[in-house]
Amino acid sequence: MSFASDNWAGAAPEILDAIIRANDGAAPGYGGDTLTKKVEAKFAEIFERDCAVYFVATGGAANGLALSVMTPPYGMVLCHEESHVQMDECAGPEFFTGGAKLLPIAGENGKLSADAIRKTLKGFPHRPPHGAPASALSLTQGTECGTRYSVDETSVVCAAACEAGLSVHMDGARFSNAVAASGASPAELTWKAGVDVLCFGGTKNGCIAAEAVIFFDRHRAMDFEFMRKRAGHLWSKMRFIAAQFDAYLEDGLWLKLASHANAMAQRLSSGLAAINGVSIMYPTDINELFVTFPDGVADKLRDGGDIFYPWITPGDPADGRGHRLICSFRTTEEEVDEFLERVRKVCD
Amino acid sequence: MSFASDNWAGAAPEILDAIIRANDGAAPGYGGDTLTKKVEAKFAEIFERDCAVYFVATGGAANGLALSVMTPPYGMVLCHEESHVQMDECAGPEFFTGGAKLLPIAGENGKLSADAIRKTLKGFPHRPPHGAPASALSLTQGTECGTRYSVDETSVVCAAACEAGLSVHMDGARFSNAVAASGASPAELTWKAGVDVLCFGGTKNGCIAAEAVIFFDRHRAMDFEFMRKRAGHLWSKMRFIAAQFDAYLEDGLWLKLASHANAMAQRLSSGLAAINGVSIMYPTDINELFVTFPDGVADKLRDGGDIFYPWITPGDPADGRGHRLICSFRTTEEEVDEFLERVRKVCD
Amino acid sequence: MSFASDNWAGAAPEILDAIIRANDGAAPGYGGDTLTKKVEAKFAEIFERDCAVYFVATGGAANGLALSVMTPPYGMVLCHEESHVQMDECAGPEFFTGGAKLLPIAGENGKLSADAIRKTLKGFPHRPPHGAPASALSLTQGTECGTRYSVDETSVVCAAACEAGLSVHMDGARFSNAVAASGASPAELTWKAGVDVLCFGGTKNGCIAAEAVIFFDRHRAMDFEFMRKRAGHLWSKMRFIAAQFDAYLEDGLWLKLASHANAMAQRLSSGLAAINGVSIMYPTDINELFVTFPDGVADKLRDGGDIFYPWITPGDPADGRGHRLICSFRTTEEEVDEFLERVRKVCD
Amino acid sequence: MSFASDNWAGAAPEILDAIIRANDGAAPGYGGDTLTKKVEAKFAEIFERDCAVYFVATGGAANGLALSVMTPPYGMVLCHEESHVQMDECAGPEFFTGGAKLLPIAGENGKLSADAIRKTLKGFPHRPPHGAPASALSLTQGTECGTRYSVDETSVVCAAACEAGLSVHMDGARFSNAVAASGASPAELTWKAGVDVLCFGGTKNGCIAAEAVIFFDRHRAMDFEFMRKRAGHLWSKMRFIAAQFDAYLEDGLWLKLASHANAMAQRLSSGLAAINGVSIMYPTDINELFVTFPDGVADKLRDGGDIFYPWITPGDPADGRGHRLICSFRTTEEEVDEFLERVRKVCD
Lengths: 348, 348, 348, 348
Known about the structure:
Four copies of one chain form a homotetramer.
Chain A (H helix, E strand, L loop, with lengths): L12 H10 L11 H13 L5 E5 L2 H10 L7 E5 L3 H4 L4 H5 L4 E5 L8 H9 L11 E7 L10 H13 L3 E6 L2 H8 L3 H4 L7 E5 L9 E5 L8 H7 L8 H11 L3 H21 L5 E2 L7 E5 L4 H7 L5 E3 L10 E5 L6 H15 L1
Parallel strand pairs in A: 2-3, 2-4, 4-5, 5-6
Antiparallel strand pairs in A: 1-7, 6-7, 8-9, 9-11, 10-11
Helix pairs in contact in A: 1-11, 2-11, 6-7, 8-12, 12-14
Function (chains A, B, C, D): Catalyzes the cleavage of L-allo-threonine and L-threonine to glycine and acetaldehyde.
Catalytic activity (chains A, B, C, D): L-threonine = acetaldehyde + glycine; L-allo-threonine = acetaldehyde + glycine
Pfam families (chains A, B, C, D): Beta_elim_lyase
């Protein structure tokens, strides 16, 4: 059984159907097609305001390109020390921004606090042109630790950035899971709380390759089209990303898929927590959880065919003993229960 | 009727079928899946040698990433002045390579000659570290002018590069059309003629988004995986690019689609050439042609709903009066004939 | 006898004296000292207007940094195909700008014409975001071919750039020689004619290492201080560059040194032109000249200890047979005459 | 009285004399002169081994360029969170390396420990190509906190880097002060302890603008000349940097100047430590010290004309209450004693 990653799960059938439908007839390239226009408008509706929307195929591209128009090349971007932009993009943000500095900040449960941001900034007094001036804050929603920021937490953290003149980027590779878990609206979790640019992910939650970079203020997006093009991220057959989002946003499919994945993670988390010797490392807010097993248990599970990755990070509370388990829109209750059964046996 | 671009055509049904098939079950991400491995092996077969193969979604990414491991950031890449890398990627190669210099060279019919390359290099004597040392040559096959290099032409041009210590990159966004038109084997048109790295395009010829960067010498590819990842071009659900190539390479589909597009362009070219006042600007070797119409004709055709773009380039032989017409795997004989009929009427 | 380069000549005594004087007492670093402020003001006086002035130590830094704030990283900078930015800075402008494209343009005598600029731009129609948008024009005054633009020529060329929305950069590594030769004022040759940013060189004309980047509109310079700092070009002991300029601008020393170098080049040029079989390749406007000798002559001169470099460039009118001879503020009439005598003997 | 920075101090007379001497006659540019060759050889002697030596004018350039050939653009460079490369170069290392990631690490007294390095690396498990692979460690000797690494400390820290496959860069802007204070040989403090590349500073210790990048293994330096040139850091009149080092290394001038500055800092440190309410924040190993004063004292001293900067950093042990005082080769005993006297009065 694989709890390796939500990107192992393939695509939701609705997404594939939409791709097939979108193939009908000729359509202008590079986003000039009507479907792309339609879906851009859908985003405006979901976020309850006019916004500039750009599609790309990967989360790394979305984050890097978003940051590339949010910071000068000599700027500094604050982020969590376990964030994807810091840990998992092979120095992509530095590449896309032309060499901006990423400043990793520690924080419990994968989250940044307003205090941590203020304290950090205090250590970087304004000394132009010596220090790289802090230009942006990058938040992750839901976080790499399977947690999420509440609306209040988001507002408070954004306020700390805003008071220092930083704009706020949100890596929303698992934004759908965070929204589904929170009950808050997409608008409340983003621009109403102070987020300037959101990378809205579809890939991890049932799309093939579909990410949207959403600028809540169009003026910030001025250079984006050029930056996307030169980075090779402007699709000629753009309608096939648009089609994915068309289905994804239709009738709340995105939240339905995310809710299911979240529920499976909850079930798995509760089940594991009840097993002697198994510990859950962080609150299970979304569709991933992090656990420590008694010695030898993880190896035995893997020998039995279960797939999940060790979880080792800079701020590691388990000192290298953690494991990450991710549920997806495709994970079933039966799979979860079977796995729990196996863990129970091995732990006995 | 649209002759705007082969990327307006959408996807071939076999490609979509393959995507749907590939969705079955969980699969490791980032190219660790069996389908990716299988398709990489298929490329080795088609090119008759071991090679390193990497998938990306766009031609601009393929070219930029390929060049990024073929030149140091202070190097110089020779290319045709009308090539895609020079004209249509928004300074992408400069971005991917960390600032290498592109040197545009003129040449008839979109092609570089060995003489032009030698003459150019003569004007850049070796003066380290003052001049950016010439590091690579970029060829386009088929060219932006709808022509192609024969095997002999390729060999001769590569030899001029090789004798100066340059490695050879081939932008093969329309490689399929060139192969289909030439009757030569993929191997003969590439590594046997001196090409080091090929960007093998699928997108313009019936795929959704599928390009393969092929290193005929694995050693050259050493850094590629890191460069692709940091540029946001490593797909998590890689199997969906692999699936496209799986179908594309199966039973020669790629050549079948390309041959059809080529034939439609031939039909269109012959038909137009026979019309009074219409001139064909370059030999019609592949699936695109370039024409000048009598005054007012192009506007009337566009007013009537036909879609094609003006063709204006640095080495423009028509001084701004040319138009580009592209056929795709989806173009039908009827469409061609209908359009020809319309042109005849308008030209009368 | 060395006619190798004006940078072989060392420093003028006045420059060294000023450095020694500047060493008196403590002074704030990084340009916060009074001498730097004073010299910045001197530039405003010489150019008859308020301007932002920044010092760096090399011409390559001046050009690259100036361009880095004049073009977005995806922009295109037009320049002469034989210009220093294109030929002699090891892809520095591409590095400093974060990957902007340099577009080399041919032109007689090292000069760009308005026609050539207009014709070039015509081949690059506005197609955002595909082509890199033309953002700046770089002129060289005096040119790499030892010629100079008159005030009228400068105005006409700048107008061609301006009408296309390009800003104008002037590489003035030998600006002093051009001013001295022209009789026009610094203002007339720059901002009054349409130049936006001037790199004003001191190094080749008697300074040790002193170049000033002058923005005639302060607003354009906004990011410059950060770009200079991150590129390692902000001197901590800035007063020692300021001191060089202080002496250089005092009592017209810069024009006196340049006039002398120009006069020596004139003397050399006239002398050589009178020798049978020696040809002067371009007009000798400033302090360098380019000649072809009868076969074997250059080698014999070099064997006899004379030093000068072959002149091989992309637009080479002598097909590899040219040589460059440069005079400096230190070149004497006796040296010129002795050399002429030797050439006469060898040519006999 | 200024304790603002060692770069306020100007140049030592011997350095100026050498510059004047070096001006005699013509000399090849770009480091082809005999003086440059001679001084390169001097460095080999001082470091007791063959090495590749390159001169630049600023410490930021030295560090950035050194790192640019020590890490791929997608690599990660470990450094102290208070180091110059992290705090004071405006994201220069990210620029020079083409986007490598700097990873700041905390450590007492401005120093990194082997434990901290090992613990940090443990949090970045090898997951190519996702995480930016750790490629280099950057140490600062003497540190930004006025401390220094002993030979043993250096060896132990380098070993932790070496065992993880990292190469070691040493920012030696105040290397002279560290050597003078340690009594160890330059070789013992660098390559014998495991340092691969040293940026040897002259500017802060009596030169005008002179830094040497020293590769203890020539093979590592392969691309350096190109990288330096394209970054505008290759001086045409290189002899004037060489001349500074010529004098600086002659008869141990570099150590004499550094010893004096160190001694003045010691005197100042002891004096201040004896004053009621004044605390010294770190051990005073070299020529700078960091102090906290009783409330109001710093302001009164500044009002009285004394100059020194507040000291605020990420790992700030004084929570924003610290001040930095730097002595230079020019600081006199009288100046120190006068200042101490004033502090005593104000503190009374």
